[in-house]
Amino acid sequence: MGSKDYDSPKKPPHQHATIKSKIKILILLVLTNSFSVFLFSGSGTSFGVNIWRCTPSMHVWDSEKLVLELNNTRARLSDSQAQLSALHSQLSIGNSLLETLIAETSRLAPATNNKTSDMWAREPSEELKFAMGPHKLPFGFTANLGSDELYPAMGHACQNFQDEVEQFLNYTIGGECPSDEVFAQRLMLKGCEPLPRRRCKPRAPAGYVEPHPYPKSLWSIPPDTSITWDAYTCKNYSCLVNRGKHSGSYDCKDCFNLFYREKKRWMHEHSELDYAMDGVLSLMSKGTIRIGLDIGGGSGTFAARMSERNITIVTTSMNFDGPFNSFIASRGLIPMHMSLAHRLPFFDNTLDIVHSMHVLSNWIPDMMLEFTLFDIYRVLRPGGLFWLDRFFCIGTQLNSTYVPIFERIGFNRIRWNAGRKLDRGIERNEWYLSALLQKPMS
Ligand SMILES: *[C@@H]1O[C@H](CO)[C@@H](O)[C@H](O)[C@H]1NC(C)=O
Ligand SMILES: *[C@@H]1O[C@H](CO)[C@@H](O)[C@H](O)[C@H]1NC(C)=O
Ligand SMILES: *[C@@H]1O[C@H](CO)[C@@H](O)[C@H](O)[C@H]1NC(C)=O
Ligand SMILES: *[C@@H]1O[C@H](CO)[C@@H](O)[C@H](O)[C@H]1NC(C)=O
Ligand SMILES: *[C@@H]1O[C@H](CO)[C@@H](O)[C@H](O)[C@H]1NC(C)=O
Ligand SMILES: CC(=O)N[C@H]1CO[C@H](CO)[C@@H](O)[C@@H]1O
């Protein structure tokens, strides 16, 4: 389809209603004012406080002057009242005239929706208007939705970044999307999440190679050509895999080398902070842990290990230093591109297990952490497990800040291990907390 097919703008459903409601507000204002004028002028005893505000120079003891002033004010007010009611009737006429006019113009001038426009710093671009809707539903579809229009989801903070959002929505309709993964992700991290949807297509990888069949795919590194790399510093998987050997801090530094540390994770109890997966699962009735979530799951190894145990785990991940999501998907696991600030897209009381390693830590502002933990509690089913894996903090914060937060949430502790971080952590009083927490049955 050519871009022409996409272009035809639809009549925005809201314009008419918006101007109408603005006029109604105006009339209400006028009515309210004339009503108070009426109160003022109608009764000599109800002057009170308001008059003092109007004529601050007057003195209470100057009673003769006061009477004069009041008489004066009263005269002026009843004057205004007369004027206002004249205005009022003029406006009513104006209102019906305008309604006719609006009905006419909204037929003639499409895509001038000013209800949503009001939220933005300036008149939004056409594509932005389409992206945010609302879009009218066909007649008869409103019952379940409770509305006769659909509002596309878009993070409310998008409004703070109109330039960026419009740049994000600047493309050839139906054509190839700009190569802007990093740009888009920064926008997400500023709170513009979910991003608005677009009417363009992502670039195809240079040489897509079909994934290995499952379960071999779980432990295969995908070919460099099967994803697009332009956006990242590391231009291929070899780079991602090898950077673990070099110094420097990267997100999920050594998790792309599937044959080194990654291969051993959660297989054995290396220390009291590292629980073995089978040990954790054995605490629950067999087969009752079936579906779950790994928050910030790096290359997806937690989900891969769970998959080998017939447990389905969704892995959330941002693409910080590389295409984490593509990597996870190539292993045959489910990636979800979502920041930590996002409300978990699962319904209440549904998941058997939520796991998170290294990600939840003291860099997260306390209030946000508390919201995150309540959200985890929300999506877990009664009896569901929250496996908090290596939560990092300073020793003094543990008992003063974090233990109280965890206690407020209301999980039951199944396992709870706090230990000093080895290497330089010892002199810096750096700690890790690992815990197995269970949502109460009732
Ligand atoms: C108040 O004003 C009316 C005319 O508006 C006048 O007849 C009356 O004498 C005035 N009363 C006083 C006390 O000035
Ligand atoms: C959209 O992109 C074109 C070409 O890159 C540019 O000239 C134009 O200014 C952009 N418009 C907006 C609103 O960013
Ligand atoms: C992989 O990328 C790195 C830089 O990101 C480059 O130095 C290296 O030559 C690349 N390797 C291959 C096989 O393309
Ligand atoms: C996973 O499910 C398959 C098919 O039902 C079964 O053959 C296999 O034994 C299961 N594996 C585990 C670890 O339970
Ligand atoms: C926290 O409190 C517990 C019990 O009160 C205590 O055993 C532990 O040493 C404290 N932890 C830290 C890191 O201070
Ligand atoms: C079509 C239309 O009425 N657009 C207006 C929306 O609101 C902005 C800001 O108030 C005006 O500048 C536009 O003309």
UniProtKB/TrEMBL annotation:
The chain crosses the membrane at residues 25-49. The keyword tRNA-binding does not apply. Keywords: Membrane, Methyltransferase, Transferase, Transmembrane, Transmembrane helix. InterPro entries: Methyltransf_11, Prob_Methyltransferase, SAM-dependent_MTases_sf. One of its GO terms (molecular function) is S-adenosylmethionine-dependent methyltransferase activity. One of its GO terms (biological process) is methylation. It holds the Pfam family Methyltransf_11. Residues 293-387 form the Methyltransferase type domain. PANTHER family: S-ADENOSYL-L-METHIONINE-DEPENDENT METHYLTRANSFERASE SUPERFAMILY PROTEIN, S-ADENOSYL-L-METHIONINE-DEPENDENT METHYLTRANSFERASE SUPERFAMILY PROTEIN-RELATED. This is Methyltransferase PMT21. It comes from Carex littledalei.
